[in-house]
Every structure is written in C-alpha cells, then in structure tokens.
Amino acid sequence: MVVTYWTFRFMMTIGLLMILLSLLFLLATRGKYERAKWMKYVPWVIALPYFANSSGWILTEMGRQPWIVQGLLKVEDAVSPNLTTVDLFISLIGYTVVYGSLAVAMLYLMKKYATAGPDAAMHESVAVAPARVGSQD
Amino acid sequence: MSYEFLQTLWFILIAVLWIGFHFLEGFDFGVGMLLPFLGKKDEERRAIINSIGPVWDGNEVWLLTAGGATFAAFPHWYATLFSGFYLALFLLLVGLILRGIAFEYRSKDSNPKWRSLFDWMIAIGSFLAALLLGAAFANLARGVPINADMMFTGNLFTLLNPYGLLGGITTVAIFLLHGANFLGLKLEGKLRDRVNTFAKKLWIAASILYLALGVFTYAAGFWARGVINPGIVPITAVVVLLVSGYFINNKMEGWAFIMTASNIVLTQITFFTMTFPNVMLSSTDPAFSLTIYNTSSSQYTLTVMSVIALIFVPIVLAYQGWTYYMFRKRITTKKDSLVY
C-alpha cells in the first residue's frame, strides 16, 4: 500500500537524519557556532520529530488494517454496536474543536517564546511575579 | 488462588482505586471549581492553584488506573460501560483535558484576559468532571437498561434522570466542600479566612443535597440489591458530614478535612457494597445484570495482574505519599515566594 510504503520510509529517514544532525551539532559546539550562518536554519529542525511521529502513527494505524488485534480481532468486529453515527460525529467534532483550539494556543505561545529569545523565555512564564525556580540572577 | 477469590479480589482493588480517586481528586476538583470565586487577585489565584499543583495529576492517575484495571480484569464491564456511557465519558474527558491544559497554560502569558480564560477553564473542567462522575455513579447504583447481550440500550438522555442529576449535583457540592476544607489547610491570611466563610455555606448545601440523595436512594429501593447490606456505613457517612460542620465553625481545618474525606470514602464503600457482586445493574431485567463472574477475564490474566499489582502498587503509593510530604507546608500569596 502506497501510504504505508512511504510513511515507513519517511519515519525512518527522518529518524536517522535526526541522529545525524545531533552528532553534527555536537561537533559544532566545539567551535564558534553561535554566530554561524547556518544557525538560522536550525529552528526548522523542530518540525522533524512531529513529522516522524505522525508518519509512524499513520503507518501503525493504516498498516494494521483490517485488524485491531493482529490475527485475533477485526476492526469491524470490535466496533461498539450500540454507538450511533451521531454519537461518533459529536465526539469527533468535539475532539477536533478542543485539539484545534489547543493547537492555536500552542502556536501562539511557541511564536511568543521563540521571538522573545532564550533569555526572555526563562522569565516570560513569571511575567507577573519573579520566581525562585528558573531564574539565575 | 481460586477463580472466585481472584474475581472478588479485583472487584475490591477496583473499588479501592475509585475510593482513592474520589478522596484525592475530590478536593482538587473542589479547589478547581472554587478558583475563580475565591481568588480575587492573580497572586491569590496562583496560590490556590499551587495548593494542588504538585499533586493533581498524580490524583488523576487513580482514575486512569481504575479504568485500566477494569479493562484488564473485567473486559465485559469495561465494554458495556464505555460504549454505553460513550458521550458522558467523552464529556468527562473534555473536562479533564480542559482542566489539565489550563493548569499548564494559564501562567505562560501575563495578559489578565488569558489568565482569566484558563482559570475559568479549570473551574468549568472540574465542574463538568465532578458532575458527570457523580451522575455516572448514581446511574450505576440505580441500574441502566442492559439487554441479554450485555448491551447498553439507552442513550445520553437515559442518564439524565432525576436520580442521576441529583447524584451529579451532590458530588459537585461534596467536592466543593472537600476542596474548601483542603484549602483551609493549605492557605494562610486573608485567603484562609475567605475559604472558611465559603466552607460554612458549602457545608449547608452539601449536607442538604447529601441527605436528599440518601433518602432518594432508600425510598426508591436502590438499596442493597447485591448480597451485602452496607448497614451502618452510609449512616456513618451522614454523621461525619454533619460533624464536619462543627469543625468548620470552630476553624479546626484538619478535622474538617478528615470528616469530608471520610464521608467520600464511606459513600464509595456504600456504593460498592450495595451493588456487589453486580458491577452494572440492568434495569431491563435483573437477570441481565453484569456481575464480577460473567464479566471477568481468565484466571491466568487475573493471577498475572495480581502479581504485578503486588509489586507496583506499594511503589506508587510510596512516591505519591512522598509528594504530599514534600509539599506539606502552607502557601503564601507573597510575591517573592510564589512559584509560577
């Protein structure tokens, strides 16, 4: 199946790439890397584990069809017979709204903290009152 | 160990998990619901959240473990319950998600609107969870429509009957009181005085609702339909709740908390003894009821689970106890000592 074929390769490639990048960054820390030009591309690496993770889950969930327990129980036999389509619609819409809103809040916070930079980020969570934990000065 | 012994053992263990959950998460649901009403300033709200900050997620694990243990030990019980109460449990999950996220996100931005939004999410999430849990337990005590194939034949509205709703509202009131008593132990100064005033009012509401629920349970014949009569346990539960009022009025917060904690524990013991050995009563025909015998997994599974529980439960109890010990001190609203 084309999806499972590619999600597997996607996951594996990104996984190995991340190991490789970690080693490269480790080597880079021996030199002067703070002002290096390539550093501005580094934040894009943040996206990699999300892609690898999602690919892995799509692979698992699609790859195991039609089984919910391999060789023992099929998805169609595991469905709750007393659930209606309406029930499922309500819950699916509910989860989408909740997780969608959380994604918006998370992106807002990520952008805010990324823009503020590492020093500000240490203090940002304590914007109203200074904390004992996390502040070094 | 005999099969019947293992089935009874796992029923008791699941009951213990639910008892622990209601006792522990009861006060943090209460604290969550009280948050926007009790805390006027940001520092006060942060102090209230910090009172449960280190422990609320640990408390919630008791719920997950109860669900997980039901799944492994009594798969038919789990299947009927989770498919039957699908939308109610979905709403419960939404409440728990909103609450959990709000604890983490509220202080990540200093905008008062942002903080207020998440404070209300904590309150609403806690309220929703307490209400639904109470309603679910009341319905389990009352009996729900289940057919010969162990299938729940009702819907969400089946659960919204007067008894179920009374159970939900009573649980909310008891948790509010329990939360107020917990905060009485954890806060100081003005906040502590304010929470004491709240507790006095909440005690009246909780007592009236609890008595009403007790009378309803008895009058409607939901009483002791299993093989054990809970006997003096529910009476003691009423007495300790009433006695907590005395301690609240005399500012004996430790004793007040012990009394509401005992009330919750005794209520849960009543619930599980009055249904045993049934786990879900069928209102369609008592013969269709789910029991520990017709819902359990195999003897081998139960034996393996017992060994695992014997090893890990003491470890979990030890580190949860340690957390409470570490964070045993009162919390002030002084800016320089308030950790965000």
Features:
heterodimer; A: 137 residues; mainly alpha; two-stranded antiparallel ribbon; 4% strand; B: 340 residues; 2 strands; 76% helix
Task: Please describe what this structure looks like.
The complex is a heterodimer of chains A (137) and B (340). Chain A has 137 residues and is mostly helical. Chain A has 4 helices and 2 strands; from the N terminus they run H-H-E-E-H-H. Chain A has helices at residues 2-28, 47-63, 75-78, 85-124; strands at 67-69, 73-74. In chain A, helix 1 (2-28) runs antiparallel to helix 2. The longest helix of chain A has 40 residues, at 85-124. Chain A is flat, with a radius of gyration of 22 Å. Chain B has a two-stranded antiparallel ribbon. With 340 residues, chain B is an all-alpha fold. Chain B has helices at residues 3-38, 42-52, 56-73, 75-84, 86-105, 112-142, 156-159, 162-186, 189-219, 233-249, 253-275, 292-295, 299-326; strands at residues 278-280, 290-291. The termini of chain B are far apart. In chain B, helix 9 runs antiparallel to helix 10. Helices cover 76% and strands 1% of the residues of chain B. The interface between A and B is medium-sized, with 24 and 29 residues.
